[in-house]
Specification:
Number of strands: 13
Strand order of the largest sheet: 1-2-3-4-5-6-8-9-10-11-12-13
Oligomer: single chain
Order of helices and strands: HEEHEEEHEEEEEHEEE
CATH class: Mainly Beta
Radius of gyration: 19 Å
Strand content: over 45%
Helix content: 10-25%
Number of domains: 1
CATH architecture: Beta Barrel
Structural class: mainly beta
């Protein structure tokens, strides 16, 4: 997709995200609306993981409901002390072959696939540690509406018509249970007059969509570092947090991070679980490297992340590059 068409894609996707529904982590703070948009068009590409969108809504000031507290206290390994957070997410991802103008992609190319999902997230935050568990239900295949979404957007922006969707994965319900623990650690508060910290994390996901173990690290450097664990991202990756604390005036930080995943199962590469479908030989070790910037102004937060994702399957030509843009408003 041509870079000059990016503003039209962003407008269409932002409108589509509002229609999808609410999501994110909620606390007793004011309500927050957040949008995450990921696309390879930022780097003039249109292949593999080509688009992801997720919209988030954080309810306003109120006590955390008793069911959330009870469930959090029942999760093994969750801290007994700390603020209990909960929330919901809804989104859509799409994956295509290397050349979307080919009606019958080669068997060694990445299968076409869509993923439409909703997530319930539950977390405990202690001030320096965040434990998160999430339960995701969704559908892979034509019912995800990924084909219709991509074709509609490409028609609106006069881009190439994606022709290979007849070869996409079949309909299959999807389930993912994920856990992650992150530690925020202060290293130096006086590096050239600004703050510097790092946040390591470990985690695991289990399900017929993804099954993997992950570990990584994020560095942040900036002015009055906010109370968060990095900007929000769409999994898999360094997911960060949708929750943030507003600042009076403008504050900012730069960040860089990396994650390594040991992939036991990836339906978007391995193919359908219960039916014959297209598939490729996946790589079991996949690495992400990311850099970006976050700006917070009063009740607004904007972030941009450049992601370099290593090869995910044996016959893949090049590593993937895509951008992740997030906008959050607390009101």
């Amino acid at each position: 997709m041509e870079r000059g068409k990016l503003k039209y894609v962003l407008s269409v996707c932002a409108f589509g995200a509002v229609l999808i529904g609410p999501g994110a982590i909620a606390s007793s703070s004011d309500a927050t609306l957040s949008l995450v948009y990921e696309n390879d068009t930022f780097y003039n590409r249109d292949s593999h993981y080509t688009n992801g969108i997720r919209v988030s809504y954080i309810p306003g000031r109120r006590e955390t409901p008793g069911w959330a507290i009870g469930l959090a206290r029942a999760v093994p390994g969750f801290p007994e002390q700390g603020e209990v957070l909960y929330g919901y997410s809804f989104g859509q991802n799409m994956y295509t072959a290397s050349d979307i103008t080919v009606e019958n992609p080669p068997r060694g190319d990445r299968p076409y696939a869509g993923w439409l999902y909703g997530t319930l997230g539950l977390a405990v935050e202690t001030g320096q540690q965040l434990d998160l568990v999430s339960f995701t239900l969704g559908v892979v295949g034509p019912a995800s509406l990924a084909e219709q979404t991509q074709k509609t957007v490409h028609k609106l922006v006069n881009s190439d018509d994606p022709k290979g969707w007849d070869s996409q994965l079949h309909n299959e319900p999807g389930l993912i249970v994920a856990w992650q623990r992150s530690w925020r650690a202060l290293v130096d508060t006086s590096l050239v007059g600004n703050q510097f910290d790092f946040t390591p994390h470990i985690g695991a996901s289990l399900g017929n969509v993804y099954t993997y173990a992950n570990t990584g690290l994020m560095f942040r450097y900036g002015d009055r570092l906010p109370f968060d664990y990095g900007p929000p991202r769409i999994a898999p990756g360094i997911v960060g947090t949708s929750r943030f604390v507003p600042r009076q005036g403008l504050s900012w930080y730069l960040f860089a991070g990396a994650e390594l995943r040991l992939m036991a199962h990836n339906i978007f590469l391995d193919g359908n679980t219960f039916r014959d479908s297209r598939s490729v030989a996946k790589r079991y070790l996949v690495a992400d490297v990311q850099i970006g910037a976050v700006a917070t102004w009063n009740r607004w937060r904007v972030s941009y992340t450049h992601v370099l994702r290593g090869k995910e399957f044996d016959t893949q030509g090049d590593a993937d590059n895509f951008g992740s843009l997030s906008v959050s408003l607390q009101f």
